[in-house]
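re the bet — no i am not wrong, look at it urself. input seq straight from the record:
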Amino acid sequence: MSSRAADVVRLLTVKGETLAVAESLTGGLVAAEITATPGASRAFRGSVTAYATELKHRLLDVDAALLEQYGAVNPQVAAQMAAGVRKALGADWGIATTGVAGPEAQDGQPVGTVFVAVEGPVGPGSGSAGGGKVEALRLNGDRAEIRMESVRSVLALLLKELVSEHTGNERAQDTEQNGGF
């Protein structure tokens, strides 16, 4: 069990928020990492492993024209996967992984090209600027190493957003208490 996954579960539980996961190249490893954490059921809604490209459209509502034009290994695809799983599973947060673990290139992208995304709460009181964040990765190593680093990276991205949302809320409260200054 990773400390990142435990930190994610702890923060989500404290906030009373939930998480859904959309995975492609990681094939369920992100969900496995999260559910290895005791108490994960308080925050984890579920996951969709959309390994086949057409499932990204059918199950996660990724734009078919986007998939047709660029393939599944694309930053916008990752963002739409995160947003789609969040909506489909009714979660506060959605995270996604898509990329090329190898051994061969895919969609014109070299092995090690990975996109991870997070989509969180939007609007007043959420502490979030809204929308999603996508991170492009160029990973080295064999298939297993690329997949495991993708898991670590998407959890780190989510953790960063959860922590910044938390500190953003504190800053907003401080501003209110100090008369707006």
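see?? Strands lie at 19-23, 44-49, 93-99, 113-119, 132-138. told u. also The longest strand covers residues 93-99. so pay up
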